[in-house]
Every structure is written in structure tokens, then in C-alpha cells.
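Figure-free illustration: sequence to structure, shown twice.
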Amino acid sequence: MRFASTRLIAADMQAMVGFYEAVTGQAAEWLAPQFAEIVTSAATLAIGGAETVAAFRAGSAEPGANRTAILEFMVDDVDAAFARLKDRAELVHAPKLLPWGNRSVQFRDPEGTVVSLFTPTTEAAKARFGSR
């Protein structure tokens, strides 16, 4: 088995795709008007319009309803990412050092999902991610 992607369901495809293009610095590949993917070196983020849910089972997912997942992106400089994005999204918390050694900032995407950008800062955190 191989984990392929995380998919978010969006009421506003343009806003969601634009937000994640800004976060990742990657252009989305639009596979259909209601479906796009942002492929990074580590993972793929898929974004489907609300109308795509019916292809699986109507009502099985809904935009803006997530309050359990946090999408995390490791960045080279969390403070630079904060400066770049602070006027584009709702801030959850400003950059701060977390107990497990990551400096982190969190925003909400246009549909309300929490997005965490972090940089490993302690030696233990750097070792977990293979960076020194």
C-alpha cells in the first residue's frame, strides 16, 4: 500500500487552490474543472469541488466541516512563510516554538482547515526529519 494523497472538498475551488498554491509555491494541475492536485516532493494535496462528493456517495463529505485534521508543511523558514501569508489567511497562532522542537505558525485555509507551517529547530527535531 502507498499513501497517495490527502483530498479536501471545497465550496470555492479557486480560493482553495489559490491558497495552497501560495502555501506550497507549487502550481496546481487541474485535472477537471472541479478537481485539482498540488504535487510536492513529499505528498500530493488533492482539492475537489463539492459536486465531486456525489461521485462517491452524496453527503459523505462537506466543505468547511473539518475540525479534526491539521495539514502540516515543513518549510525552510517559518518566519518568512508567516510574513508571506499573514495577510492572506486567518491566523490561528503566530510563530512559536513547540515542545517537540518545531517552530510553527498556523493559519486556516479558506474552508476552515488548520494549516501548520513548521521548521525543525532543535537537534532532536532536525534529526527526526533528516536535516542537520
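We now fold a second protein in the same way, so the two outputs can be compared directly.
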Amino acid sequence: MRALVISGGGSKGAFAGGVAQYLMERENREYDMFLGTSTGSLLVPHLAVNKIGKLYDIFTNVQQQDIFSVSPFIHHKKGDREYVSIDYINSLWQFIRRRRTFGESKALKRSIQKNVTYEEYVQIRKEKHDVVVTVANLSMNRVEYKSIQECTYEEFCNWVWISCNYVPFMSLAKVDGYEYADGGLGSVIPIREAILRGATEIDAIVLEAETLGKQKVLGKNPFSLMIGLFGHLLNQVERNDIIIGKLAARNKNVKLNLYYTPTSLTENSLIFSKRLMEKWWKEGYGYAEKRHSK
């Protein structure tokens, strides 16, 4: 059974889209199972129904207002450089309203329900072995994996949304009395879960460079420093996931193909820039093509 696994990585998911497009269209890879965390969970339903053109249009045209109903960021552009700073007004408003997060991502929930149709949900359940998204149950301090085969359409869309909620910058969700957030807080790339679910060959797309090519610049204010620290912690979780996944693959005799980004694409994956995401999609396709031409 062949599986495609895509890690978390925010806007860097565009790179994963390019890699997946090459593998599915040029290498004719057919996957029985798709697993994703955070941005990976946004990609896998569309890949499962082989709607790569639709996915490209959605992903490269997404803007901040499609993600945040209350954005904690102000997007700036200076020459070719794009960056964010804190939106003090929105963040203060969240405190006044006694919210526990700097921003809200209910706009993303509406976008998911708009772009993942009920017909596609039915098609996936009928044609594919499984599509699985990763969430973090903060109340119980555990990672959970939500299968499309065990969810209603509304539940599945909700779990995809929850898998992307990068707290404290996005919404904290509550389901059946438990509080949930981004699956990357516990499992950035669920390789081991794919093996446990029966995968015998895995293509895993890791939205981070295999080695750090340059020194990271930490934030100049507490808010941007927090983003940098969260990124550091998620990188450590990701590296552990890969080590555990490699050991599990070796133990179960599973063929594991890892696709990293050739360079560190961005210091802030919560910037959704059409120009950058189109560029990263093309780079992902070119990277996969170059790797398979050797």
C-alpha cells in the first residue's frame, strides 16, 4: 500500500504541491493513503481526488483574509522582501474580549468548507483506502489522527481546520469538551502513523531543509521572537518524527522516500504571498524532477 505524507509548514505547502504534482503526473504515482499535518491536511483531500489544478489555484491565490477572521499580523512589503509585524490593535482587542489567542482563523474554516465539496468527500471514501489529518488534543496532551472513513463530511472539514490552527496566533477549537490545535504541536510529519496504518511504501514531503543552511535571525520584538521560538520547537518535533519514522520503516521493511526543501524557504510561514507561493510550487516541481532525473 502506497502512502503520501505531507508535513506542516503554512504557506510552504505550495512547495509540497509542486512535488506532489510531479510525482502524480510525471511519475504516475497512485496513492492508496494520504496523511497530512497542518498545511498538509489542506493539501491531501484535493490530491486524493487528483484535482491538482484546482489545488494550485486555491493555494497560490490564498490571502491573509482567507485565513484570519481576526489577523494578529500586518503584512509589509519592502522591495522583494515580505515580512509581518504585530497588529497591536487586533491583539489588544483580543485581550479585551478575553480571548486566549492573538488571532482567529474562522475565515479558514469557511474556506475549507467551500473548497472541499461533499461530492469529493464521498469520492475519497469510495475510492481511497484513507485520508488522515493530524490534530493535537491539548486537554489530554496527546496527538490524534482523524480518518475520513470515520468522520461525517462536517466533522472532516472541522478536523482539517483544527489541524491548521497554529495557536496562539490562530483559533483554539473545542470538540466534545476537549481543546484542540495544530497537529504539528505533536506530530509535524506522521510517517510512523502511515506505517501503523499499513503503508508499505511512503513518499514523505518535509517542508524544511534537511540541514540549516544559514544562521536564523531571531525576532526584534517579543511577538516575532515568539514566532521564531515556535518554529524552532516545531523543527525539533519534525526531526524526531523523521528519526522515528526511519526506524519504523527499517523495522517493518517499508520503503521510505523523503523529499526536503533544498533551502529554507521562509522564516515566517504565516505570510501568504501569491508571488512566493507560485515560486515555491514551481521550485517543488523542479526539485522533484531534478531528483528523479538522476
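Summary for the second example: The chain has eleven helices and ten strands.
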